[in-house]
TrEMBL record:
Its EC number is 5.4.99.26. It is an enzyme of class 5 (isomerase). Pfam families: PseudoU_synth_2. This is tRNA pseudouridine synthase C. InterPro entries: PsdUridine_synth_cat_dom_sf, PsdUridine_synth_RluA-like_CS, PsdUridine_synth_RsuA/RluA, RluA_PseudoU_synthase. It comes from Marinobacter fuscus. GO terms for biological process: enzyme-directed rRNA pseudouridine synthesis; tRNA processing.
Length: 249
């Protein structure tokens, strides 16, 4: 069976991979019948040996995933994550023209993993996300009440780690991420799905910056967005943007 993960970085202690959109991290009560998981494929890349996820990506989110190859390294990285010492960067295509930059400081109520707990009141946690606008476009397509439709390409940096934080924060400032079935706008999602032949969440994890858990040296990991994401970036005709870097001709 072809492994859908692409190896990006490996050393004695770490394994970094690119996860495609649509692949679950691990077994979940939400998708009991699913049989393929990023965790099992990462284990296969690791010669069948156990790996320890340092963080997680939602099923519809593509991009960079980091695993520890031993429990001690996993513990060190877990502490670094809790202390906010690991910087994560994402790219997203959102509805509307966002401000050039900003910080979304908006507490979020926890979302339970098990749908059977949805009726139970969950605690509210502080949540902050920084964003920077990289490019904008206006398409001559009337999707809602306007004769044209505007979109932005943004770089997102979560400063906390709440479930669905980026998706919920972008909805909070009225710039939902394209392809977000739960927090987005259905008409825009359908337009992109029809135009590009498939619907997906336009959110990709592209960078991780951290101190190496063993050597202490700075480590910057990068992952190019997969083809289904990059194809949509064609709407931003100027400038061309890859990995958050935009350059004019």
């Amino acid at each position: 069976m072809l492994n859908p993960l692409t190896e990006i970085y490996r050393d004695t202690w770490l394994l970094a991979v690119h996860k495609p959109a649509g692949l679950l991290m691990h077994r979940s009560p939400i998708d009991k019948h699913e049989t393929e998981f990023a965790l099992q494929y990462a284990r296969a890349l690791n010669g069948g040996e156990h790996v320890y996820p340092v963080h997680r990506l939602d099923r519809p989110t593509s991009g960079l995933l980091l695993f520890a190859r031993d429990p001690d390294t996993a513990s060190v990285l877990g502490q670094a994550m809790m202390a906010g010492e690991v910087s994560k960067t994402y790219l997203a295509v959102v509805r509307g023209w966002t401000p050039e930059q900003g910080v979304i400081d908006h507490p979020l109520r926890e979302e339970p993993e098990d749908r059977r707990q949805k009726g139970q009141l969950q605690p509210v946690r502080e949540a902050r996300s920084a964003y920077q606008r990289l490019a904008t476009t206006e398409l001559p397509v009337a999707i809602e009440r306007y004769p044209s439709s505007r979109y932005s390409l943004v770089e997102l940096k979560p400063e906390t780690g709440r479930k669905h934080q980026l998706r919920r924060h972008m909805k909070h400032i009225n710039h939902p991420i394209i392809g977000d079935a739960n927090h987005g706008r259905g008409r825009h999602n359908r337009y992109f799905a029809e135009r590009f032949g498939a619907g997906r969440l336009m959110l990709a994890a592209t960078e991780l910056a951290l101190a190496h858990p063993v050597t202490g040296e700075p480590l910057l990991l990068r992952a190019e967005p997969e083809e289904s994401f990059s194809r949509v970036l064609s709407i931003f005709v100027e400038p061309e943007c890859t990995l958050g870097v935009c350059a004019t001709d």
